[in-house]
């Protein structure tokens, strides 16, 4: 659970940094990355 939260936090921080540099805060990309992290983590847990 800790690694999942850290991965999501990392995605949010990266989104903020890129948003400040490009001055464009698109939330669609952030939502897609967070959902991808959650789905990937769930599938990874099931395969173990």
Give a quick rundown of the structure:
It contains two helices and no strands.
Summarize the helices and strands and which ones pair or pack.
Blueprint: H1 2-22, H2 27-47
Helix pairs in contact: 1-2
Report the β-strand fraction as a percent range: under 5%
* Rg, Cα atoms, Å: 12 Å
Straight-line N-to-C gap: 15 Å
Helix content estimate? over 70%
Number of separate strands = 0
- Mean pLDDT equals 88
Give the H and E element order: HH
Low-confidence stretches: none
Q: What would you call the shape?
A: elongated
| Major sheet characteristics | none
Structural class estimated from helices and strands = mainly alpha
Number of helices: 2
Written overview of the protein:
The structure is a single chain. The chain is an all-alpha fold and 48 residues long. The protein has helices spanning 2-22, 27-47. Helix 1 runs antiparallel to helix 2 (27-47). It starts with a helix and ends with a helix. The mean pLDDT is 88.
List keywords for this structure.
48 residues; mainly alpha
């Amino acid at each position: 659970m800790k690694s999942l939260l850290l991965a999501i936090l990392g995605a949010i921080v990266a989104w903020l940094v890129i948003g400040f540099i490009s001055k464009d805060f698109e939330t669609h990309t952030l939502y897609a990355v967070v959902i991808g992290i959650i789905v990937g983590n769930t599938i990874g847990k099931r395969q173990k």
